[in-house]
Design goal:
46% of the residues lie in helices and 18% in strands. The chain is built from eight helices and seven strands; from the N terminus they run E-H-E-H-E-H-E-E-E-H-H-E-H-H-H. A five-stranded parallel sheet has the order 2-1-3-6-7, with helices on both faces. A hairpin with a 2-residue loop joins strand 4 (104-108) and strand 5. 27% of the residues are buried. Helix 1 (15-30) packs parallel to helix 6. It has 238 residues and is of the alpha/beta class. It has two domains: 2-194, 3-Layer(aba) Sandwich (Rossmann fold), CATH 3.40.50.360; 195-238, no CATH class. Bound molecules: flavin mononucleotide (FMN). The site of flavin mononucleotide has 14 residues, from helix 1. Flavin mononucleotide binds next to helix 1.
Length: 238
Protein backbone atom coordinates (compact mmCIF):
# COMPACT_ATOMS: atom_id res chain seq x y z
CA UNK A 1 0.00 0.00 0.00
CA UNK A 2 1.40 3.37 -1.07
CA UNK A 3 -0.34 6.14 0.84
CA UNK A 4 -0.26 9.91 0.44
CA UNK A 5 -1.47 11.87 3.47
CA UNK A 6 -2.64 15.41 2.76
CA UNK A 7 -3.03 17.93 5.59
CA UNK A 8 -5.33 20.74 4.50
CA UNK A 9 -5.31 23.05 7.51
CA UNK A 10 -3.70 26.51 7.41
CA UNK A 11 -2.41 25.91 10.98
CA UNK A 12 0.03 23.04 11.53
CA UNK A 13 -0.55 23.16 15.33
CA UNK A 14 -4.26 22.33 15.02
CA UNK A 15 -6.23 19.27 16.08
CA UNK A 16 -6.20 18.32 12.39
CA UNK A 17 -2.40 18.51 12.48
CA UNK A 18 -2.32 16.11 15.45
CA UNK A 19 -4.81 13.73 13.79
CA UNK A 20 -2.68 13.81 10.64
CA UNK A 21 0.49 12.93 12.62
CA UNK A 22 -1.33 10.12 14.47
CA UNK A 23 -2.67 8.64 11.22
CA UNK A 24 0.78 8.83 9.57
CA UNK A 25 2.41 7.21 12.66
CA UNK A 26 -0.14 4.39 12.69
CA UNK A 27 0.32 3.73 8.98
CA UNK A 28 4.14 3.78 9.10
CA UNK A 29 4.31 1.55 12.17
CA UNK A 30 2.07 -0.97 10.41
CA UNK A 31 4.42 -0.99 7.41
CA UNK A 32 2.48 1.23 4.99
CA UNK A 33 4.70 3.24 2.63
CA UNK A 34 3.74 6.89 3.26
CA UNK A 35 4.37 10.31 1.79
CA UNK A 36 3.10 13.53 3.35
CA UNK A 37 1.83 16.70 1.74
CA UNK A 38 1.25 19.67 4.06
CA UNK A 39 -0.65 22.20 1.99
CA UNK A 40 0.19 25.18 4.23
CA UNK A 41 3.90 24.54 3.56
CA UNK A 42 3.83 24.42 -0.24
CA UNK A 43 3.71 27.40 -2.57
CA UNK A 44 1.05 27.75 -5.24
CA UNK A 45 -1.50 30.24 -6.54
CA UNK A 46 -4.91 28.87 -5.48
CA UNK A 47 -6.72 30.62 -8.35
CA UNK A 48 -7.19 29.36 -11.88
CA UNK A 49 -6.64 32.36 -14.18
CA UNK A 50 -6.99 30.58 -17.53
CA UNK A 51 -10.11 29.20 -19.21
CA UNK A 52 -8.88 25.69 -18.52
CA UNK A 53 -6.59 24.86 -15.57
CA UNK A 54 -4.08 22.91 -17.65
CA UNK A 55 -3.22 26.12 -19.57
CA UNK A 56 -1.78 27.60 -16.38
CA UNK A 57 1.81 26.47 -15.71
CA UNK A 58 2.09 24.42 -12.53
CA UNK A 59 4.37 25.63 -9.74
CA UNK A 60 7.15 23.11 -8.85
CA UNK A 61 5.30 22.16 -5.63
CA UNK A 62 2.16 21.30 -7.65
CA UNK A 63 4.23 19.24 -10.09
CA UNK A 64 5.55 17.31 -7.07
CA UNK A 65 1.99 17.02 -5.70
CA UNK A 66 0.74 15.52 -8.97
CA UNK A 67 3.68 13.09 -8.96
CA UNK A 68 2.79 12.04 -5.39
CA UNK A 69 -0.91 11.61 -6.22
CA UNK A 70 0.04 9.51 -9.22
CA UNK A 71 2.41 7.44 -7.08
CA UNK A 72 -0.21 6.80 -4.37
CA UNK A 73 -2.72 3.98 -4.29
CA UNK A 74 -4.55 5.63 -1.42
CA UNK A 75 -4.99 9.26 -0.31
CA UNK A 76 -5.92 10.44 3.18
CA UNK A 77 -7.29 14.00 3.41
CA UNK A 78 -7.28 15.61 6.86
CA UNK A 79 -9.11 18.95 7.06
CA UNK A 80 -11.37 21.01 9.34
CA UNK A 81 -14.99 21.63 8.37
CA UNK A 82 -15.30 25.33 7.58
CA UNK A 83 -18.61 26.85 6.54
CA UNK A 84 -19.97 23.38 5.93
CA UNK A 85 -17.23 22.35 3.54
CA UNK A 86 -13.43 22.74 3.76
CA UNK A 87 -10.84 25.54 3.91
CA UNK A 88 -10.04 27.61 0.81
CA UNK A 89 -6.54 26.09 1.00
CA UNK A 90 -7.92 22.68 0.01
CA UNK A 91 -10.34 24.10 -2.57
CA UNK A 92 -7.53 26.09 -4.23
CA UNK A 93 -5.25 23.04 -4.19
CA UNK A 94 -7.90 20.87 -5.86
CA UNK A 95 -8.71 23.59 -8.42
CA UNK A 96 -5.07 23.73 -9.47
CA UNK A 97 -3.89 20.13 -9.09
CA UNK A 98 -6.81 18.11 -10.53
CA UNK A 99 -6.20 19.30 -14.06
CA UNK A 100 -7.64 17.87 -17.28
CA UNK A 101 -5.12 15.40 -18.68
CA UNK A 102 -3.97 14.51 -15.18
CA UNK A 103 -7.13 13.75 -13.17
CA UNK A 104 -9.69 13.30 -15.98
CA UNK A 105 -9.99 13.61 -19.76
CA UNK A 106 -13.10 14.60 -21.68
CA UNK A 107 -13.73 12.25 -24.60
CA UNK A 108 -17.15 13.75 -25.49
CA UNK A 109 -19.13 16.67 -24.05
CA UNK A 110 -20.91 14.31 -21.61
CA UNK A 111 -18.22 11.60 -21.31
CA UNK A 112 -14.87 11.60 -19.60
CA UNK A 113 -12.12 9.18 -18.60
CA UNK A 114 -11.43 9.02 -14.89
CA UNK A 115 -7.65 9.11 -14.92
CA UNK A 116 -7.21 8.45 -11.18
CA UNK A 117 -9.40 5.32 -11.24
CA UNK A 118 -8.29 2.42 -9.09
CA UNK A 119 -7.25 4.67 -6.24
CA UNK A 120 -9.07 5.08 -2.93
CA UNK A 121 -9.33 7.86 -0.37
CA UNK A 122 -10.16 8.39 3.30
CA UNK A 123 -11.50 11.67 4.68
CA UNK A 124 -10.76 12.74 8.25
CA UNK A 125 -12.44 15.97 9.29
CA UNK A 126 -13.05 17.93 12.47
CA UNK A 127 -16.06 20.15 13.25
CA UNK A 128 -17.81 22.00 16.05
CA UNK A 129 -21.22 20.72 14.97
CA UNK A 130 -22.03 17.23 16.29
CA UNK A 131 -21.30 14.95 13.28
CA UNK A 132 -24.82 13.44 13.27
CA UNK A 133 -26.34 16.95 12.93
CA UNK A 134 -23.87 17.74 10.16
CA UNK A 135 -24.83 14.56 8.35
CA UNK A 136 -28.59 14.39 8.77
CA UNK A 137 -29.62 18.04 9.22
CA UNK A 138 -27.10 19.82 6.97
CA UNK A 139 -26.76 16.79 4.65
CA UNK A 140 -22.93 16.86 4.80
CA UNK A 141 -22.22 19.35 1.98
CA UNK A 142 -18.41 19.22 2.24
CA UNK A 143 -18.25 15.48 2.29
CA UNK A 144 -20.64 15.12 -0.65
CA UNK A 145 -18.78 17.71 -2.72
CA UNK A 146 -15.46 15.97 -2.14
CA UNK A 147 -16.68 12.38 -2.50
CA UNK A 148 -18.90 12.85 -5.52
CA UNK A 149 -18.07 16.01 -7.42
CA UNK A 150 -14.29 15.92 -7.04
CA UNK A 151 -12.80 12.55 -6.07
CA UNK A 152 -15.53 10.44 -7.69
CA UNK A 153 -15.36 12.53 -10.87
CA UNK A 154 -11.66 11.66 -11.19
CA UNK A 155 -12.16 7.96 -10.34
CA UNK A 156 -11.11 7.95 -6.69
CA UNK A 157 -13.34 5.82 -4.50
CA UNK A 158 -13.86 7.09 -0.95
CA UNK A 159 -13.34 4.18 1.42
CA UNK A 160 -13.80 5.76 4.81
CA UNK A 161 -15.04 9.05 6.27
CA UNK A 162 -14.36 9.96 9.88
CA UNK A 163 -15.84 13.14 11.36
CA UNK A 164 -14.59 14.17 14.80
CA UNK A 165 -16.78 16.57 16.76
CA UNK A 166 -17.97 18.54 18.44
CA UNK A 167 -14.43 19.87 18.91
CA UNK A 168 -15.52 22.96 20.85
CA UNK A 169 -17.41 20.80 23.37
CA UNK A 170 -14.80 18.03 23.60
CA UNK A 171 -12.73 17.11 26.64
CA UNK A 172 -9.00 16.31 26.58
CA UNK A 173 -9.88 12.63 27.09
CA UNK A 174 -12.21 12.71 24.08
CA UNK A 175 -9.57 14.32 21.86
CA UNK A 176 -7.04 11.73 22.98
CA UNK A 177 -9.51 8.97 21.92
CA UNK A 178 -9.86 10.68 18.53
CA UNK A 179 -6.09 10.58 18.13
CA UNK A 180 -6.15 6.84 18.89
CA UNK A 181 -8.90 6.39 16.29
CA UNK A 182 -6.88 8.30 13.73
CA UNK A 183 -3.82 6.14 14.47
CA UNK A 184 -6.00 3.04 13.99
CA UNK A 185 -7.25 4.36 10.62
CA UNK A 186 -3.61 4.59 9.53
CA UNK A 187 -2.55 1.19 10.80
CA UNK A 188 -5.57 -0.57 9.26
CA UNK A 189 -4.37 0.52 5.82
CA UNK A 190 -1.86 -2.32 5.83
CA UNK A 191 -4.85 -4.65 5.17
CA UNK A 192 -6.03 -2.47 2.26
CA UNK A 193 -8.21 0.62 2.07
CA UNK A 194 -11.56 -1.17 1.92
CA UNK A 195 -13.21 -2.91 4.87
CA UNK A 196 -14.13 -6.62 4.47
CA UNK A 197 -17.80 -5.61 3.85
CA UNK A 198 -16.75 -3.08 1.18
CA UNK A 199 -14.57 -5.73 -0.49
CA UNK A 200 -17.51 -8.20 -0.56
CA UNK A 201 -19.75 -5.52 -2.07
CA UNK A 202 -17.09 -4.69 -4.66
CA UNK A 203 -16.86 -8.39 -5.66
CA UNK A 204 -20.65 -8.64 -5.89
CA UNK A 205 -20.84 -5.56 -8.14
CA UNK A 206 -18.00 -6.92 -10.29
CA UNK A 207 -20.01 -10.14 -10.75
CA UNK A 208 -23.19 -8.24 -11.55
CA UNK A 209 -21.30 -6.09 -14.05
CA UNK A 210 -19.85 -9.23 -15.65
CA UNK A 211 -23.38 -10.66 -16.05
CA UNK A 212 -24.25 -7.55 -18.08
CA UNK A 213 -27.82 -7.59 -16.86
CA UNK A 214 -28.61 -4.50 -18.88
CA UNK A 215 -28.47 -6.62 -22.06
CA UNK A 216 -31.37 -8.86 -21.02
CA UNK A 217 -34.18 -6.58 -19.83
CA UNK A 218 -36.93 -8.47 -21.69
CA UNK A 219 -35.70 -11.81 -20.34
CA UNK A 220 -35.68 -10.46 -16.79
CA UNK A 221 -39.12 -8.90 -17.20
CA UNK A 222 -40.45 -12.22 -18.56
CA UNK A 223 -38.89 -14.14 -15.63
CA UNK A 224 -40.34 -11.68 -13.13
CA UNK A 225 -43.84 -11.75 -14.66
CA UNK A 226 -43.65 -15.57 -14.81
CA UNK A 227 -42.53 -15.80 -11.19
CA UNK A 228 -45.30 -13.43 -10.05
CA UNK A 229 -47.97 -15.27 -12.07
CA UNK A 230 -46.95 -18.79 -10.99
CA UNK A 231 -48.45 -18.76 -7.46
CA UNK A 232 -51.75 -17.38 -8.78
CA UNK A 233 -51.96 -20.19 -11.38
CA UNK A 234 -50.97 -22.82 -8.83
CA UNK A 235 -53.81 -21.67 -6.55
CA UNK A 236 -56.32 -22.19 -9.36
CA UNK A 237 -55.25 -25.83 -9.97
CA UNK A 238 -57.33 -28.48 -8.19
C1 LIG B 1 -13.64 29.94 9.19
C2 LIG B 1 -14.25 28.86 10.04
C3 LIG B 1 -15.44 28.30 9.65
C4 LIG B 1 -16.01 27.27 10.41
N1 LIG B 1 -17.18 26.70 9.99
C5 LIG B 1 -17.68 25.64 10.65
C6 LIG B 1 -18.85 24.98 10.17
O1 LIG B 1 -19.42 25.32 9.15
N2 LIG B 1 -19.30 23.91 10.87
C7 LIG B 1 -18.70 23.47 12.00
O2 LIG B 1 -19.14 22.50 12.59
N3 LIG B 1 -17.58 24.09 12.49
C8 LIG B 1 -17.06 25.15 11.84
N4 LIG B 1 -15.92 25.78 12.29
C9 LIG B 1 -15.25 25.23 13.48
C10 LIG B 1 -14.14 24.28 13.05
O3 LIG B 1 -14.67 23.16 12.35
C11 LIG B 1 -13.35 23.78 14.25
O4 LIG B 1 -12.77 24.91 14.87
C12 LIG B 1 -12.25 22.85 13.83
O5 LIG B 1 -12.79 21.70 13.25
C13 LIG B 1 -11.39 22.47 15.01
O6 LIG B 1 -10.31 21.66 14.56
P1 LIG B 1 -8.86 22.29 14.33
O7 LIG B 1 -8.22 22.53 15.70
O8 LIG B 1 -8.12 21.23 13.60
O9 LIG B 1 -9.02 23.58 13.60
C14 LIG B 1 -15.36 26.81 11.59
C15 LIG B 1 -14.15 27.41 11.97
C16 LIG B 1 -13.59 28.42 11.21
C17 LIG B 1 -12.28 29.02 11.64
Amino acid sequence: MRCLLILAHPRRDSLCGALFDACADGARQAGVECRELILSEIRFDPDVHEVSPEQQPLEPDLVRAQRDIHWAEHLVFVYPTWWGTFPALLKGFLDRVMTPGFAFRHVAPDKWDKLLAGRTADLITTMDTPPLIYRFVYRAPGRRALVRATLGYCGLRTARIEAFGSVVASSAAQRSRWLDQSRAIGSRLIHGALSPAQRRRQRLFAWLAALRLQFYPMTWIAYTVGALAAPARANRCP
